[in-house]
Amino acid sequence: MIKYKNLFIDLDDTLWDTYHNNQECLEEMYNTHHWDQHYASFEAFFSVYWPYNNLLWSKYRNREINRQMLIFERFHHVLSPMG
């Protein structure tokens, strides 16, 4: 059994900048996969993704949805307009 010496809990995004990491990664995907054919700009794409992603995380924390639903729905919602 592994014995941990330290445990870090990042409650305020000081260790991991969730918003900007999501933004950077998704912007790279947006450009690589030419999603500009479906969204007017990356900002338009991200403005659909981010609020819905936060809603799903809230539902997950409240045990209203499971992990698989969280993973599937956050991308299904934003990618479904692309067909």
Q: Please, could you describe this protein's structure?
A:
It is a single chain. The chain is mainly α and 83 residues long. 58% of the residues lie in helices and 0% in strands. It has helices at 18-32, 42-61, 67-79. The protein is globular and about 50 Å long. The N and C termini lie far apart (47 Å).
Defining traits:
83 residues; mainly alpha; 3 helices
Compile the SSE list and pairings.
Blueprint: H1 18-32, H2 42-61, H3 67-79
Helix pairs in contact: 1-2, 2-3
Radius of gyration: 16 Å
Mean pLDDT: 90
Strand content of the residues, in percent? under 5%
Count of distinct strands: 0
Encode the helix/strand succession as letters. Answer: HHH
In this structure, how is the largest beta sheet organized?
A: none
Uncertain runs are: none
Quick overview of this protein structure:
This protein is an all-alpha fold and 83 residues long. The protein contains three helices and no strands.
